[in-house]
Amino acid sequence: MGNEAYINIVNLSKSFGKIKALDNINLSINNGELITILGPSGCGKTTLLKIIAGLEIPDIGDIFIDGIRINDIPPYKRNIGMVFQDLALFPHLNVIENIAFGLKIKKIQENEIKEKVSKILELIKLPIDEYGDRRVTQLSGGQQQRVALARALVLEPKVLLLDEPFSHLDYKIRQELMVELKRIQRSLNITTIYVTHDQTEAMFMSDRVAIMYNGKVFQVGKPSEVYDNPINTFVATFFGEVNIIEGRLNNGYILVDGWRPIKLRNTKIDNNGSDHIHIILRPEKIKIGNANKNNCIAKGRIEDLIFLGPFVKIDIKINDKQYIKALTPRSICKDIAIGNEVSINWSLNDMKIFPGE
Amino acid sequence: MYSSLKILIIISIIFLFVFFYIPLIEMFIYSLKSENPIENYVSILKNPLYIRIIGYSLLISFLTTIISLIISYPIAYYLAFIINEKFKSIILIAFIAPFWVNFLLRTYALYNVLYMIGIINNFIALLIGMVYDYYPYMLLSIYATLSKISKSILDASFLFGATPFQRFTKIILPLSMPGIIAGSIFVSLTTMTEFIVPSMLGGVEGYTVGYLIWDLFLKYRNWFKGSALSIIIISIALIISLFYSRKAKVVLI
Amino acid sequence: MKMRIIWTIYTIALLSFLYIPIFMMVIQSFNDSKYLTEWKGFTIKWYSKLIESNEVWASFINSFSIALASALTSTFLGITLAYTYIRSKSRAYDFLDIAMYTPIIIPEIAEAVSLALFFYLSNISFGWYTVFIGHTAFNIAFAYFTLKAQISLISKNVEDAALILGAKPIKVLFSVLLPIAMPAIFASMIITFTLSFDDFIKSVFTTEPGFPLLPILIWTRAARARATPDLNALATIMITISLCLASLYTYYMYRRS
Question: In this prediction, does ipTM exceed 0.90?
Answer without folding.
Answer: no
